[in-house]
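Board notes (copied after class):
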Amino acid sequence: MSNDIDERRLDQLLMFAASLGVEFKNIELLNRALTHSSYTKQEDSAALNNEKLEFLGDAVLEITTSTYLYKHFPNMSEGELTKARAALVCQDSLSKIAGELGFGQMLIVGHSEDNELGRSRPSTLEDAFEAMVGALYLDRGWRVAKKFVEQKLKAGFADVKRGRLIADPKSHLQELIQREQGHSIEYVKLKDYGPDHDKTFECAVKLDGKILGRGVGKSKQSAEKEAANQALKFLENEQS
């Protein structure tokens, strides 16, 4: 164990790894994956942040998703496979997974980022998730890292199977609504918050004036996209 990891932090890391369903031989790698560059730049120790692990994890994510899609969706064209992979490993997807898994609370960040907004920033969560995958690959090897990625992207792969990640969800929702005559959908901004350089938007999609789904994102477009995804899930549940 590194002298830089105290007993309290060590316990937190071990519990976090267990919650993810993984075990690290070298817990320092997980700690580094969860160390944001704002902290090490503040401490003038850039060698210990998660940027290089993020670079490695990005490659592991790409080859894992590419291999899975190639094997499980043999009827997809190259273009469809590319679009599906891009949707699975995009910032919206990975930051949402990382947020749900509690990455934000585990991050070591600098003073400028040590607040709820900084810890929940999509780019920060995405980087931490990619770095964790890179750390797992270095520590436990390809098979363990591959299994972890496939488990955490399970819902995304299911969406691909349903056709939700191939086309833009807004387009897919529009197509579904157009099958029924006399219905209309519209997107509305419910609110936005945060400073001008880092705003967060909340939008909703309405069907005949009734809210069908809500979404939050760092742009109106991403918020509307998430709202469309929520609406698609709602409609799917209604039909099942």
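Comment from the instructor: The domain at 169-239 is CATH 3.30.160.20 (Double Stranded RNA Binding Domain). The chain has a mean pLDDT of 88.
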